[in-house]
Amino acid sequence: MNAYIAGLIVPLVILLFRNSNNRKRRGLPADVGGEPGFTVRNHRVTSPLTSLWEDVTTLAELFELTCRKNHDRLLLGTRELISREMESSSDGRKFEKLHLGEYQWVTYGKVFESVCSFASGLVKIGHVREERVAIYADTREEWFIALQACFRRNVTVVTIYASLGEEALCHSLNETEVTTVICGRKELKSLVNIAGQLDSVKRVICVDDDVPSDAASAQHGWTITSFSDVERLGRENPVEADLPLSADVAVIMYTSGSTGLPKGVMMTHGNILATVSAVVKIVPELGTKDVYLAYLPMAHILELIAENLFAAVGGCIGYGTPLTLTDTSNKVKKGTKGDATALMPTVLVAVPAILDRVRDGVFKKVNAKGGLSKALFDLAYARRMQAINGSWFGAWGLEKALWNLLVFKKVQAILGGRIRFILCGGAPLSGDSQRFINICLGAPIGQAYGLTETCAGGTFSDFDDTSVGRVGPPKPSTYVKLIDWPEGGYSTTDSPMPRGEIVIGGPSVTLGYFKNEEKTRESYKVDERGMRWFYTGDVGRFHADGCLEIIDRKKDIVKLQHGEYVSLGKVEAVLLGSPFVDNIMLHADSFQSYCVGLVAVSHPALDEWASKQGIAYSDLSELCSKEETVKEVHASLVKEAKKGRLEKFEIPAKLKLLSDPWTPETGLVTAALKIKRDIIRKTFQEELSKLYAK
């Protein structure tokens, strides 16, 4: 009976798509195999895209092609380090400050020479094709060169976050039986700490020339060489390339994991190439005039795709770090330039947490100035909001140019003043932050939805789509299907939009989890037509124009004592709008009738409030423990909850305020700044118990 009803309803939904004349159709229904559901493809293609370049099926072929085509153009840039200085704060703590100079550039031709030399050098120091290389370092020029060098020898690269804890690091290296590790001086210290627990590491290549003496000790069971020495050995002993096939595994990417030990996702050359091709097709006019600021971890799929993408189109990649991104970043010496000011990029990739902080910082400065300056900003912001909401084309007129000149030019200068497009992924972006980017930076923002398991393939909002809260239509390299989830009350026959668990299919879908067949069988399925599908566990709905909206997460739904369902992620996304919240985790217990919350507070906002209230305190921890502080933060959350139309039972009844920030180094959030729910729950188990005991 259900199949019969679906057979009647789905054609009606398809008809709705075809007759939706009030909006540009960005995604179209598709006929696919596999589990019954409602499937959409990108309007630009009739079948998933595998490669945009004729006769190119691997990343090694693509890189060689682009280097020959753009031989004398600039490719990789790194800032000169002029000095390191230690500065003391008022409480006696010391901070390192960097004085960085201008970017020093290397051409495509020179980079290709380095790649070929390093590939040959790997052979010379004894690494063979069947063995795996791990890259365990911060994002930098050598990371990219090492990656491309491994591809030329058909060597699988294991990517590991530089912020990964020692237990997870040891697990990743041993599980993949890595024999060669490429790392920085900082990461080498962690490697030395676990040397006795490593089963297979034979060689270590240090990216920095000043190798610590204790790391070179024979007792660790490895030989150690500098990156430059491996390149030199390769130049002196060149070896022919051993190029991979499309189906060969290019990367085993270890997720930073929001639960438990990280899982290794196996990505083929074909998987990555399909996603790179799809993004080139979506974003207009990407090419040799574009400059990209690379500062996210390259062990994250978002950054790995971005750098391969900009190299493919002949653009420039300038390296930076999150701590030196702007002129006011923590590690930038006062009076000197941050990375964005020095580079003046045209395209930026960011996770929502970074954009939220830029927005909050700007509004804080505006509010602090007050008076005529604030009034002018508010007027300009309101006018631009009206223009964008009324018509995108109206938003680009003479009035926009005027407001940019009078008001928003200084905001745009924070990121170099030339940003023409921002790609955002890794987590949902709030509507407020999206509008801030559109207005203050004067740039469109493309929201992407994808996972490591789909090689970032999923959906991507179009350049001219100014709607908020949606993640666009499927990328040209994927199909996106919704399937019924009866337990959660979601169905593809729901009105006015089909809803269900999001399943992604196509050439971007990876092979599965390394040495974890049970989890692979659980999450991946191949249909009768040979199409591979990944079951995301996310819940979405399709709008009439074919754009996806993420509305829930299967694992984040908890049933309270009286039968109400709480979607933890949805509530957290709303409550993050409070100025007092730097990060938050909602906790719900099925044996309780209410929720509680752990709040990592925003230091500046709380300090400012306390100062205005005349509240005396010795440190932030003391301020967080005060009853009036908890009441103020709770009132702020209630206000955000009402704005977000949350139910009363979704609002945390009790809070614990935490003074220490949640960073990847603390292990409480991933490199993409998503909370690690299970780890936070275990870390603050005592605090959560007390909240329910009160």
* Major beta-sheet overview: 8 strands, mixed
Order the strands across the largest sheet as they lie in space: 9-8-7-5-6-10-11-20
CATH architecture annotation of the largest domain: 3-Layer(aba) Sandwich
What is the fold-level CATH name, i.e. the topology of the largest domain? Rossmann fold
Query: So how many helices?
Result: 21
Number of domains: 4
- Which class of secondary structure composition applies to the elements? alpha/beta
Global shape: globular
Q: What proportion of the residues is helical, as a percent range? A: 25-40%
Mean pLDDT: 89
CATH class of the largest domain equals Alpha Beta
Number of strands: 28
The low-pLDDT segments are 1-22, 391-395
Amino- and carboxy-terminal Cα gap:
50 Å
CATH superfamily of the largest domain: ANL, N-terminal domain
Gyration radius, rounded: 25 Å
Protein name: Bacterial long-chain fatty acid CoA synthetase
InterPro entries: AMP-binding_CS, AMP-dep_synth/lig_dom, ANL_N_sf
GO molecular function, one term: long-chain fatty acid-CoA ligase activity
Domain AMP-dependent synthetase/ligase: 97-514
List keywords for this structure.
single chain; 694 residues; Luciferase, domain 3; Rossmann fold; seven-stranded antiparallel beta sheet; 21 helices; disordered N terminus
